[in-house]
Specification:
Blueprint lengths: L2 E4 L12 E2 L11 E6 L7 H4 L1 H11 L2 E6 L3 H9 L5 E3 L2 H10 L2 E9 L9 E6 L9 H4 L3 E4 L5 H12 L13 E4 L3 H9 L5 E5 H9 L8 E6 L8 E4 L4 H12 L7 E3 L2 E8 L6 H9 L2
Parallel strand pairs: 1-9, 3-4, 3-5, 8-9, 8-10
Antiparallel strand pairs: 2-4, 5-12, 6-12, 6-14, 7-10, 7-11, 13-14
Length: 290
């Protein structure tokens, strides 16, 4: 019988959240905005955004405190419960947060050297694997690793792409094991070390781990890539005052004028404006993948 294995479980939302980057001095609470990040990487996603947040703080006068969670649903809950004013969500997590927590997407980063904010899911195998094509015949019965339930490029899109070749991850006859590694980075390493035969991972993390030499591209083969996915957005709580939202959005969209800025996967060229309707295609895919 197929087993679904959760390799990295969610931490419960107890005793509040741990904040990072806070000084010992007492902050004016009216001037503090709290920001939560979905856990896409082993490297610490909030670190990618540190330069952007510094510029926002300087140009708006707000202090931004980072909230760390280990679960995609916990990021939604943080905003729903009023513990987070801002967030960086994956596209799938965003549509849940928009419905359940009053999240409003307002900007998305365009990576340095890229022409758009979109990214993809890569299906990867270890170099020399007998799996050479993204077909039902070759994929059925294999050990599959994904990121985390709630991930766009590491759960929703891989499952949707597999449905296109008549492989449902919920059908026990299709895969010997479906593993959730807890991050894209961990999923990549599961393929490298042989605990999984095929991995569905974000192209952003794939590119970043090659760039920082965590992995070597020649150790793997990409057997399939999905169509482009709408980029993971920055969002704010819809109950924030209008003038606060305007200040934050303007600071993000103009941040590249004031220095090097980061985001999901590393350095960004700039941020561009998005709105809720830009994620309607993701909503339609989510309806297909129950």
């Amino acid at each position: 019988m197929k087993k679904t294995i959760i390799l990295l479980s969610a931490l419960a939302l107890v005793c509040g959240f741990i904040f990072t980057g806070c000084s010992g001095a007492k902050e004016d609470s009216s001037n503090v905005l709290r920001m939560v990040f979905v856990p896409a990487s082993e490297k610490g996603d909030e670190n990618d955004f540190s330069s952007l947040l510094s510029i926002i703080e300087k140009n708006t006068g707000f202090t931004i405190q980072s909230i760390n969670v280990t679960d995609y649903n916990a990021a939604v809950e943080a905003m729903r419960a009023g513990r987070a004013d801002l967030a960086w969500f994956g596209a799938k997590t965003y549509i849940q947060a928009a419905e359940l927590a009053g999240a409003e997407a307002f900007a998305v980063g365009v990576p340095k050297g890229k022409e758009s904010a979109s990214y993809k899911t890569h299906f990867i195998v270890k170099k020399g694997s007998p799996i050479t094509a993204f077909t039902k015949e070759q994929m059925q019965g294999t050990k599959l690793v994904l990121n985390h339930v709630g991930s766009t490029s590491g759960d929703l899109i891989p499952r949707y792409e597999l449905l296109q070749i008549d492989l449902d991850t919920k059908d026990e006859d299709n895969f010997s094991i479906v593993q959730y590694a807890g991050s894209h980075d961990a999923a990549i390493m599961a393929v490298l070390f042989g605990t999984a035969e095929v991995g569905g991972v974000s192209s952003v993390n794939w590119d970043a781990r090659i760039k920082d030499a965590t992995i070597k591209a020649e150790d793997f083969t990409i057997i399939h890539s999905s169509p482009p996915i709408m980029g993971a957005p920055l969002a704010y709580k819809n109950t924030l005052p209008v003038d606060v939202k305007q200040k934050i959005k303007q600071a993000v969209l103009e941040a590249h004028k004031f220095g090097t800025i980061g985001g999901y996967g590393g350095e960004m060229d700039h941020y561009e404006s998005v709105e809720d309707a830009d994620y309607n295609i993701t909503r339609e895919i989510a309806k297909t993948v129950k």
